[in-house]
Automatic annotation (TrEMBL):
Annotated GO MF terms: translation elongation factor activity
Species this chain originates from: Hymenobacter metallicola
The protein, known as: Elongation factor Ts
Pfam families in alphabetical order: EF_TS
InterPro entries linked: EF-Ts_dimer_sf, Transl_elong_EFTs/EF1B, Transl_elong_EFTs/EF1B_dimer, Transl_elong_Ts_CS, UBA-like_sf
Protein's job: Associates with the EF-Tu.GDP complex and induces the exchange of GDP to GTP. It remains bound to the aminoacyl-tRNA.EF-Tu.GTP complex up to the GTP hydrolysis stage on the ribosome.
Length: 278
């Protein structure tokens, strides 16, 4: 059995960021082999991930990056179980590492991002698993990417909600202010689509059926149910599709009118909204 010194423990701690006692235990189990000890610590993270798989992750941190030319945006949200963990330096550093990897590799999917290898030879997924072993909580990553003529972004003050929004037909307009306003609208009002054409057919069908049932319960004649339901559906579109929503800062304008007022023909092509715990 190899003698485990304080210097050995400190070296492993520096390599992994794990706690002193965890490092000592891993080195002892690995008989002083540092690589084997690192594997043991990683397995601890996987055990925690498996054990806490059903736990809720309602806290966390969102980070966003938009390219210098403003045509591409990346958003990462790392969720954890408790607010205290969300404030830990190593947690915030991991969020930044993930975002940097997304920008560097231009990852097009979450699976691609998780499989990205860092300079230390570990993938992003392995770094997440490692941190789970250190903090003892489940972590959950959400990744979104968006490209457009102009991409705007916004992170809410609680750092738990973030948005990327794509604009087109911006002309010569300075889109910074209006892009931020639209992104804030998306965070606050949670639209389900850009316009009614983007609403999933299953949602449309459900809203029509709900409208019919409500009208029927109010005693309306059967012949009128379809017309009444269509009226209720149009109200749903107005309240739940971005371009048709009233602008929260000025309800005399819809978002479509706000954009057109800023630059003739400007509109939204797509948006990504990510919220931790909501």
């Amino acid at each position: 059995m190899a003698a485990i010194t304080a210097a050995d423990v400190n070296k492993l701690r520096t390599m992994t960021g794990a706690g002193m006692m965890d490092c000592k235990k891993a080195l002892t189990e690995a008989d002083g082999d540092f690589e084997a000890a690192r594997d043991i610590l990683r397995k601890q993270g996987q055990k925690i991930a498996d054990k806490r798989a059903d736990n809720e992750t309602s806290e966390g941190f969102v980070a966003v990056a938009v390219s210098e030319d403003g045509t591409a945006g990346k958003l990462v949200a790392l969720a954890c179980e408790t607010e205290s963990v969300a404030k830990v330096a190593s947690f915030r550093e991991l969020v930044q590492r993930i975002l940097d990897a997304a920008v560097r590799t231009n990852a097009t999917s979450q699976e691609e991002l998780l499989a990205t290898k860092e300079e230390d030879g570990l993938t992003i997924q392995e770094h997440i698993t490692d941190l789970m072993g250190k903090i003892g909580e489940k972590l959950n990553l959400t990744y979104a990417t968006l490209s457009a003529e102009k991409v705007a972004s916004y992170i809410h003050s609680d750092s738990k909600k973030g948005v990327l929004v794509g604009l087109k037909n911006v002309g010569g307009a300075d889109t910074a202010a209006v892009g931020r306003d639209v992104a804030m609208q998306i965070v606050a009002m949670k639209p389900v689509a850009v316009d009614k054409d983007g609403v999933d057919a299953s949602i449309t069908e459900r809203e029509i059926e709900i409208g019919k049932e409500q009208a029927r319960a109010e005693g309306k004649p059967e012949a009128m149910l379809e017309k009444i339901a269509q009226g209720k559906l149009n109200k749903f579109y107005k309240e739940n599709t971005l371009l048709n929503q009233e602008f929260v800062k000025d309800n005399s304008l819809t978002i479509a009118q706000l954009l057109d007022k800023t630059s003739k023909g400007m509109t939204v092509t797509d948006f990504k909204r990510v919220a931790i715990g909501a």
